[in-house]
Amino acid sequence: MQPITSTNDFVVKFANVNGSGSASANQLFAKSIIRMGVPVAPRNIFPSNIQGLPTWYEVRVSEAGWMGARAGVDLMVAMNPQTWTQDVASILPGGYLFYDSSKPMPKSKFRDDVNVIGVPLTEICNRTYTDPRQRQLFKNIIYVGALSALLDIEIGVLETLIGEQFKGKDKLIQPNIHALHLGRDYALANLTCPLGLKVRRSDRVGDRISIEGNAAAGLGAVYGGATVCAWYPITPSTSLAEAFTKYCQKFRVDPETGENKFAIVQAEDELASIGMVIGAAWNGSRAFTATSGPGISLMQEFLGLAYFAEVPAVIFDVQRTGPSTGMPTRSQQCDVMSCAYASHGDTKHVLLFPEDPHECFTMGAQAFDLADRLQTPIFVLLDLDIGMNERLCAPLQWDDSRQYDRGKIMTYEALEAGKDFGRYLDVDGDGIPYRTYPGTHPSRGAFFTRGSSKDRYAKYTEDAAAYRDNMDRLLVKFETAKELVPHPVEKKAKTATSVGAIYYGSTSPAMGEAAHLLGEDGIPVDLMRVRGFPFHDDVVAFIEAHDQVFVVEQNRDAQLRGLIINECGIDPAKLVPVLHYDGTPVTATAIAGQITARLRPSIQQRLKKEAVA
Amino acid sequence: MTYLAKPKLHHPSLQPNKLGFTRRDYEGSISTLCAGCGHDSISAALIQACYQLDLPPHRIAKLSGIGCSSKTPTYFLGASHGFNSVHGRMPSVLTGANLANRDLIYLGVSGDGDSASIGLGQFAHLMRRGVNMLYIVENNGVYGLTKGQFSATSDRGSKSKKGVVNTDEAIDMVALALQLGATYVGRSFSGDKTQLVPLIEGALLHKGTAFIDCISPCVAFNNHAGSTKSFDYVREHNEAVNFLDVITPRAEITAEYAPGTVEEVVQHDGSVLRLRKLAGDYHVNDRLAAQRFLQEHQADGEIVTGLIYVDPDPEDLHAHIKTVPTPLQKLAERDLCPGSAALHKLNAGLR
């Protein structure tokens, strides 16, 4: 057996029991590698459970900077007897199995083509600690200590991180460092260190930060000026509302009075959440909710109201696998259609697709400008993969000269000056009318907001022409949105090619890596990352400029592809779906594999033809 | 048709209030409800109350759900912003509106279908939160727009126009409001303006969740013999606990009453609720006693009306969540955006 040897490019997977306190130890492990200048992409794979079920933490170490998931495990830290068999099976041939060797295990439990590393973690803990909870928690730190020796992680970096983690609770620093050394010393004394897998200090992290997409989006809402948040707990969006709460408490509490410049209400359900958002935005506040697919389903009626009555709203949808309850703790891009066309009747909504936490922040803030400008719901579509995992991304930025765009607001002064006010009157051709905030003027500018049809001056009407006039203006407004939403980002292959790929959101890192793999394999692919809906004209131009365009997404029904076909009038034959929808984040090899399988026959055919000629 | 505006001309002898507005300035479009509908009387009572209290019409926000009752905000306060939202969801929209701007006066208009059936959940949670508003349910025990189905407030045994007897237990919105924490709870009857107008006035001045269940017979579908929400039935079974006068902080107190017959409640804004007691030793500040009184009289087939409970010094949602006194919708970048320096620090902590 040839043991895998690799420096700064491997996957470590921790198999733990949910609720055993492993999360912070695993994060410590990942962070120590980042601090050594080597990019790391960690991912939580966890059950819909509070305590007892299996959970995994996957750490992809990639000096090249590939942040997508990668199939296969180089080093398995198998701490959960429940999942032992599947965990051992997932190790690549020549890979490593790290386990607690306190109790003897039958040989049949191991594999011949895997290097086995036993550390008697329980024995060390039982010898050192008497308190059961301490035994459990320190066991996690002890294995991190052992791994530091096995992978050549600098101990000083780990010690610094522990110091930072327990700053203010200084009593905990020494015991944790002690536990770290228990593991490290055992490994150094009893095992061959380092393994074939090694971490070597590098400078590839740069000034990047590590943050979860949900936290970044919640912070974006703070920066974007949101004052009302109404939400209902649902995985995987809960931490977004919680992050907003945390950052509001940090930044928005009046230091003198202790009073809050924000209002957060945990509503009774998603219907009430979106209702409160609509009420607050109607009344001039910037308001949002955070939810996931089932919440979007419940909000449908209200979303139609907001579209038709033209009330701003921001909805962060952190997507999880559906339909129904689906797999609540697994990731998917499966709400694209249900958000784009949410509600009964003819409706279309603006969608934003952040690729990472950095864009969760920027688009999170921008969504409020767009909502006010376009007077309509704006959906920010995250998913669990970027929402609930810490991801290395560019540092967050804010331009202090930036002013909020509150859109077309008819002021007291304008009303007083006798300016004509028609709530649904398009005065300058962009399809967006002026609105007034309630209470603006004693005798002018009041109107009735309703979900039933109305004329340009907001008067109720069932007149056919007036209804149609309004519906057509809403299309003009949607056309205006095309230029306002973030434009797509194009990345050309190194050599000219007739093959293109369109992708969005959390597929981004895997797609980038896949294009690299394909390029090395002689298949150059031009890339277009869609960042908003309605689709910018550049999307159509990209499709027209290529003979074949793959649409890569993480759902079963090729939802973005369908949306492109429907909205841009593209021949379906031209758009080839590349799909991944098992709840795990898509990998580069999965994408490259599907594209290669589709292209190879034609390449082979072409080569044959050329040979004949 | 709801878009028919009323003619602007009015009688020159109409008296302006302290703000210079006449009663007509508090009106809306011409009602499209059935002639004789109890709801129109409630609209008239709301108009009179707002006029008498000298409320600036544009500082009132009127919100409703869907149904006959929810159509009525078009027919009063034409200078106020209105929001006809979705069925049963007025409470959430109003809660959001109230969070955004605490300076406006909020009037939520709903019906028994809107609040006791499809919107029961939102009704309940609004009461729990203590949103500062007047929540008025125009309760006719029937679905009018869809032509006469029973609603959830129809009494068991009540007969529909088609002769069907209701077998489901009725939901008593007043009992629910009391249990759920509303701080001003009353019931009245659209046919009794002298009771209803001051009850509305007291509610509009109340700085917490005020709930009024106003029985409002449906002349088209629920005003026949055998109905327990008909004009005749309600008149016969009306058990008023008190009669209310509302005295604003600025008003002079002129009337005099025999000792022991009057109870005065001073609300947070200084307004005085003067209750002429009709039901012996009924105390309007005792939530538990109110619940008991209500249940007992209901068991006897009586409809208890009047101001049933009031907490003169309630805490509203804004107090619970400690928002700044400035309406949130007035806050701008300097209040809301932490800026690049703070972000720079955050970035440093995330490496």
Descriptive account of the structure:
The complex is a heterodimer of chains A (613) and B (351). Chain A has four domains: 6-198, Pyruvate-ferredoxin oxidoreductase, PFOR, domain III (Pyruvate-ferredoxin Oxidoreductase, domain 3, 3-Layer(aba) Sandwich), CATH 3.40.920; 211-393, Rossmann fold (3-Layer(aba) Sandwich), CATH 3.40.50.970; 412-484, no CATH class; 489-612, Rossmann fold (3-Layer(aba) Sandwich), CATH 3.40.50.920. With 613 residues, chain A is of the alpha/beta class. Chain B has an eight-stranded mixed beta sheet, sandwiched between helices. Chain B starts with 37 loop residues before the first helix and ends with a helix. In chain B, helix 7 links the parallel strand 7 and strand 8 (209-215). Chain B has one domain (23-333): Thiamin diphosphate (ThDP)-binding fold, Pyr/PP domains (Rossmann fold). Chains A and B meet through strand 9, helix 7, helix 8, strand 11 and helix 9 of A and strand 2, helix 3, helix 5, helix 11 and helix 12 of B.
CATH structural fold name of the largest domain in chain A? Pyruvate-ferredoxin Oxidoreductase, domain 3
Question: Which chain pair has the greatest contact?
Answer: A-B, 77 and 63 residues
Name of the CATH homologous superfamily of chain B: Thiamin diphosphate (ThDP)-binding fold, Pyr/PP domains
Poorly predicted spans of chain B: none
Strand order of the largest sheet of chain A: 11-10-12-13-15-14-21
Looking at the overall shape, the CATH architecture of chain B is 3-Layer(aba) Sandwich
Radius of gyration of chain B: 21 Å
With helices defined by DSSP (H or I, 4 residues minimum), what is the helix count of chain A? 20
**Approximate strand percentage of chain B:** 15-25%
Layout of strands and helices, then pairs:
The complex is a heterodimer of chains A (613) and B (351).
Chain A: E1 6-7, E2 9-17, H1 22-35, E3 40-45, E4 54-62, E5 73-78, H2 84-89, E6 91-100, E7 115-119, H3 121-128, H4 132-151, H5 155-165, H6 173-190, E8 197-198, E9 209-212, H7 213-223, E10 228-231, H8 238-251, E11 263-266, H9 270-282, E12 287-291, H10 293-298, H11 300-309, E13 313-319, H12 336-340, E14 350-352, H13 357-374, E15 377-383, H14 384-387, E16 390-393, H15 412-416, E17 448-450, H16 464-484, E18 489-491, E19 499-503, H17 508-520, E20 526-529, E21 532-533, H18 537-544, E22 548-553, H19 559-568, E23 575-579, H20 588-612
Chain B: H1 38-52, E1 60-64, H2 68-71, E2 81-84, H3 90-100, E3 105-111, H4 112-117, H5 120-129, E4 133-139, E5 142-143, E6 149-150, H6 173-180, E7 184-189, H7 193-205, E8 209-215, H8 231-237, E9 238-240, E10 242-247, E11 262-266, E12 272-277, H9 287-299, E13 303-310, H10 317-321, H11 333-336, H12 339-349
Parallel strand pairs in B: 1-2, 1-3, 3-4, 4-8, 7-8, 9-13
Antiparallel strand pairs in B: 5-6, 7-13, 10-12, 11-12
